[in-house]
Amino acid sequence: MTYDGIVSRYLNRPLSRPLARALRRTPLTPNTVTSFTLLLALASGGAMAAGWNIAGGIAIQAVSVLDGVDGELARLKNMATRFGGVFDAVTDRYADAAILAGMTVFAVRFEGHPHPEFVGMLALSAALIVSYSRARIEADLPDVIESGRLDSVFGLASRDVRSLIAAIGTVVGQCYWTLIVLAAVSALTVAWRLVYLRVTVGSRRFPTET
After folding, report:
1. Which DSSP string do the residues of 96-126 spell out, in sequence order?
2. For residue 174, what are the CA distances in angstroms to 22, 106, 163, 169, 202?
3. Half-sphere exposure (CA, 13 Å, Cβ side) for 154?
4. What is the mean pLDDT of residues 68-85?
5. Among 116, 119, 168, 205, which is least packed by CB within 10 angstroms?
6. Distance CA 191, CA 168 (A)
7. DSSP line for 9-74
8. pLDDT at site 208
9. What does pTM read for this prediction?
10. How far is CA 61 from CA 7, 112, 151, 159, in A?
11. What is the pLDDT of residue 198?
12. Mean pLDDT value across residues 125-151
């Protein structure tokens, strides 16, 4: 079961689904779209590092929209594979790293705040932990995923929400403070997931082998 955050549900998906349908009759494969999305994320990071924050911020949101195209295209073309899922997840992490690195370089070069490298490191570490926590929940607690209460588990600050925050903060030229916000909401998201799971399934034990 996949999860769409509030930004994906009401902003990204209404754009990515028609785009996937338009690509259905082309030779493009879902993995090709995934690769292009990563390249766009790298370009976004490069644009921010060069000082083009408006272009970089727009590209961040474009990456977020395109992130939903490959999966939808795989469904439409009946080309969903396990490799494609892993490839998408891995490239998403590289995309996050490229975007946050670009924001950090922009903060270093064009903003006068203290220790932007440290702030960028915190934002990247927190983003990776959020992704890791979701992967562990999906792998170890399939019954929680199948229950359908995904907004309760993942909905505080999912990747689509964080991407929109990053895009807005970058466009207005405030990468430093946006990185702080991203680090904070990511940490809160991980804490929320742990508290939620502790309350709902914390006393459940693994089945014993007989």
Report:
1. HHHHHHHHHHHHHHH---S-HHHHHHHHHHH
2. 36, 9, 14, 5, 40
3. 27
4. 94
5. 205
6. 25
7. IIIIHHHHHHHHHHHTTSS--HHHHHHHHHHHHHHHHHHHHTT-HHHHHHHHHHHHHHTTHHHHHH
8. 58
9. 0.91
10. 10, 26, 21, 11
11. 86
12. 83
Mean pLDDT for all residues in the chain: 91
> DSSP states of 82-96 as a string?
HHHHHHHHHHHHHHH
Amino acid at 187: A
More confident of the two residues 1 and 150: 150
Confidence (pLDDT) at 141 = 79
Mapped onto helix, strand or coil, the DSSP state of residue 160 is helix
Residue 150 has what DSSP assignment?
H
Q: Which residue bears the tokens 């006393």?
A: 203
Q: How confident is the model at residue 197 (pLDDT cuts 50, 70, 90)?
A: confident
Report the C-alpha gap between 108 and 152 in whole angstroms. 36
Rounded to 10 deg, the angle between the 82-110 and 116-140 helix axes is 160
pLDDT at 209 over 80: no
**Are 64 and 18 spatial neighbours (Cβ–Cβ below 8 Å)?**
no
Q: Which of 66, 127, 118 is nearest to 93 (CA)?
A: 127
Rounded distance, CA 182 to CA 188, Å? 10
- Single-letter residue type at 26: T
Measured at the CA of 9, the angle between CA 82 and CA 24, to 5 degrees, comes to 50
